[in-house]
Amino acid sequence: MCYARNSLAKFRKPHHQKICLQRDGILLITATHENGLRGKAGPIGPAGEKGDQGETGKKGPIGPGGDKGDVGPIGLPGPKGDRGNQGDRGAPGICRCGSIVLKSAFSVGITTSYPEERLPIVFNKVLFNEGEHYNPSTGKFICAFPGIYYFSYDITLANKHLAIGLVHNGQFKIKTFDANTGNHDVASGSTVIYLQPEDEVWLEIFFTDQNGLFSDPSWADSLFSGFLLYVDTDYLDSLSEEDEL
Ligand SMILES: [Ca+2]
């Protein structure tokens, strides 16, 4: 009896059995033998070649935390915070009102006679005009600084009566009348007024044909004058505060 194998094989069979040696199905040797004593085991063969790399093992457990890192760089500026509480009241300031000198003064004459009634009389001859607040083209004084002002007029008249008055923002403040008695006369008036900036003051004939204002350079002048007596103190304080800012 033989046992077929695809590779070289050698079989040891029981006593008096046939020994078959065959390769790839081809019988090479057949023999019979008798049982001998079992030999000793041979020496351990040399180490085999290194095997292929095995599959990746399972993921190990998470290791312990590392050391604390270094402090990072300074970040970008944050958004603007809310408005803080109002601070304590400051110490009283030092008034420097005395260093502020406000000037406003004028005195003007006229070179024509018999002005038109109910219109601003244009005093075109400027004798003095500090601050240029009087306009010799319109006859109007325009207030620049709030405060108390003094105005006066001395008007020479001839040949006609004179009914003249001082107007503040379109309203007569005072009126003066002088009758013509055949000679030259002088009618005068004066008053004190509180003015706001942009207020207007002028002289005006208030009655028809009673415009006897007479101009003669060789005899006499007719004059209209005014000046700032003192400025409004509240206005001065506001200027002082602005100056400190
Ligand atoms: Ca008179």
Automatic annotation (TrEMBL):
Q: Which InterPro entries is this protein grouped with?
A: C1q_dom, Collagen, Collagen/C1q_domain, Tumour_necrosis_fac-like_dom
Principal place of residence: secreted
The record's subcellular location field reads: Secreted
**SUPFAM superfamilies in UniProt:** TNF-like
The residue ranges crossing the membrane are: none
Which keywords does UniProt give here? Collagen, Secreted, Signal
**Residue ranges of domain C1q in the record:** 99-235
Q: Which Pfam families match?
A: C1q (PF00386), Collagen (PF01391)
Q: What segment(s) does the record annotate as region Disordered?
A: 38-89
Specify residue ranges for compositional bias: Basic and acidic residues: 49-58
The record's GO CC annotations read: collagen trimer; extracellular region
Name by which UniProt lists this protein: Complement C1q tumor necrosis factor-related protein 7 isoform X2
Ranked from the top, the taxonomy reads: Eukaryota, Metazoa, Chordata, Craniata, Vertebrata
